[in-house]
Amino acid sequence: MARALVVFESVPGETRLIAMAVAQGLATRLPVDVACAQNAPTAVPGDVRLLVVGGPGHPPAGPGAPRYGLREWLEAVTLPRGVHVAVFDLRPDEPARFAGDGAMGIERALVRGLGANAAAPPEHFLLPDPQGPLADGQDDRARRWGQALAEVVAPRPVASAAPAAAAG
């Protein structure tokens, strides 16, 4: 049975909230697993039909930054042929030229670098302050986006359970 995998990098933790909301939306049509980048499989299983990857608008740096994050995972990962991908980032509510576009870099690595198929344009969720919290309504928007993505790759609903979250 086809399923989805959501991989995220989260410092201080707001990206995890978005990843879980996206997974809840996906779970309306697909079984879904959620993993932080440091615990995500570097060989994405062949039954993964949709891979959703997200992180902050800028790679985290400093004392709280993970030693193994999305950048390292993207360098190591292999994907099944024909997998669909969707990417997201968190950014301040300002123009992209100031906020950065982490999602575009992630999508480039997955589509151009690894041959995945883009399921949707990159999505940007608002984080007014780098320390959080999310802007109002972002978790609901993420859930709706997850539902829309699921409809693209799995037109029929399946009996779903809550998303399975990996440690991290």
UniProtKB/TrEMBL annotation:
Region of interest: Disordered: 122-143
InterPro entries: Flavoprotein-like_sf (IPR029039)
Stated name of the protein: Flavodoxin
Protein source organism: Blastococcus saxobsidens (strain DD2)
